[in-house]
């Protein structure tokens, strides 16, 4: 038995979750699919976390000492985000380089310091041996989890007229913004879709959704529509129940993660275009748009690259278009990614 194999059998996978909910969902989604002993690590950051990450340091300086994990060190770390890079690389160094490091999205430190980077089109990363290029993000929407959510939420969703239109709402992201104008456009499109199908609407918001936009949406949606307002750590959040019970899903175009999870639910998916007119332009979205045109690529994301492939490859259709959305199987890409990660443990 090799030294590394012996080490692997005595250790575990660490999912070092992010300070952003979407990234944490992706980290946990991939980690659980590995079906290996798993520990979830949540860090507490101080004001130096961002600067230390941007400086590409191997350091614990951005982490409060009380939340810093200790040995035995894991066989594998899965994480994401600039604030997590320094401490994850520090853990790898403490293990004598034996801990494999997998990051999602993109990295700020040179990619050669990571065993694997799992990315999606909006980050525009090059083709390199340690980069996995996927269309969709990692997620935990599995058949088992959907079946569990279907059972748990059966009584709640029994009261909705079929077909049920599930709506997943994000918020401001990069050059896109979801404000009152977008809420009015979305409400009109959803009401029209529900009338055409004689169906009903249930929408769920997220941590990034502005309260004023939710107010406008509730004001304009059909009287029998239901809107869930996101609350942190709320066990009554119907998100997975909606994925399991909805007959169709509408997702705002800002969230690559929710668009990926919607495909995992096996339902027809429609994208609501936040770049449509009239647009909710903010100072932040204008600056981001200018940065996309004039600044270095590594400082921005181009969500349009994802949207074009998503639609072209048949995973969804734009809401209001004449195209028909049909369920498309995302499992081949997911399983190929799992195999690639597990292959790191065979070195």
User: What is the CATH first-level class name of the largest domain?
Assistant: Alpha Beta
Q: How would you name the oligomeric state of the polypeptide chains in this document?
A: single chain
Shape: globular
| Separation of the first and last Cα atoms | 13 Å
Note the beta-strand portion.
5-15%
H/E element string? Answer: HEHEHEHEEEHHEHEHEHEHEHHEH
Radius of gyration (Å)? 21 Å
Widest beta sheet: strand line-up: 2-1-3-4-5-6
Number of domains: 2
Beta strands, count: 12
Task: Quote the CATH topology of the largest domain.
Answer: Rossmann fold
Give structural attributes.
13 helices; alpha/beta; 347 residues; Rossmann fold; globular; 6-stranded parallel sheet; 2 domains; single chain
Question: Which helices and strands occur, and which strands form pairs?
Answer:
Elements: H1 3-9, E1 13-16, H2 21-33, E2 38-41, H3 49-54, E3 76-79, H4 85-94, E4 100-104, E5 116-119, E6 131-133, H5 143-152, H6 154-157, E7 164-168, H7 180-197, E8 200-204, H8 211-220, E9 226-228, H9 239-245, E10 248-252, H10 256-264, E11 269-272, H11 283-294, H12 303-312, E12 317-318, H13 331-343
Parallel strand pairs: 1-2, 1-3, 3-4, 4-5, 5-6, 7-8, 7-10, 8-9, 10-11, 11-12
Helix pairs in contact: 5-9, 7-8
């Amino acid at each position: 038995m090799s030294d590394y194999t012996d080490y692997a059998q005595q250790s575990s996978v660490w999912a070092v979750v992010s300070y952003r909910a979407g990234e944490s969902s992706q980290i946990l989604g991939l980690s659980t699919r590995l079906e290996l002993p798993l520990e979830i690590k949540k860090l507490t950051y101080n004001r130096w976390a961002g600067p230390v990450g941007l400086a590409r340091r191997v350091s614990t300086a951005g982490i409060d000492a009380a939340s810093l994990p200790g040995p035995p060190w894991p066989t594998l770390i899965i994480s994401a985000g600039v604030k997590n890079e320094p401490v994850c690389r520090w853990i790898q160094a403490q293990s004598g380089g034996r801990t494999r490091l997998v990051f999602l999205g993109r990295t700020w430190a040179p990619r050669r310091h990571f065993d694997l980077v799992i990315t999606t089109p909006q980050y525009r990363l090059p083709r390199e041996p340690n980069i996995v290029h996927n269309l969709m993000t990692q997620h935990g929407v599995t058949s088992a989890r959907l079946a569990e959510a279907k059972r748990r939420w059966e009584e709640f969703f029994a009261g909705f007229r079929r077909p049920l239109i599930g709506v997943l709402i994000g918020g401001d992201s990069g050059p896109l913004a979801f404000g009152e104008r977008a809420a009015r456009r979305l409400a009109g499109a959803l009401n029209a879709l529900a009338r055409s199908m004689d169906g009903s609407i249930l929408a769920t918001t997220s941590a990034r959704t502005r309260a004023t936009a939710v107010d406008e949406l509730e004001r304009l949606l059909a009287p029998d529509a239901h809107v869930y307002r996101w609350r942190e750590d709320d066990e009554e959040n119907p998100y997975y129940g909606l994925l399991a019970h909805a007959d169709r899903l509408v997702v705002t175009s800002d969230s690559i993660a929710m668009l990926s999870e919607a495909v995992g639910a096996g339902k027809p998916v429609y994208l609501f275009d936040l770049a449509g007119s009239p647009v909710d332009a903010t100072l932040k979205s204008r600056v981001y748009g200018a940065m996309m045109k004039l600044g270095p690529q590594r400082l921005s994301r181009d969500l349009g690259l994802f949207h074009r492939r998503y639609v072209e490859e048949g995973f969804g259709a734009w809401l209001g278009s004449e195209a028909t959305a049909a369920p498309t199987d995302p499992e081949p890409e997911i399983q190929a990614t799992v195999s690639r990660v597990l292959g790191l443990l065979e070195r």
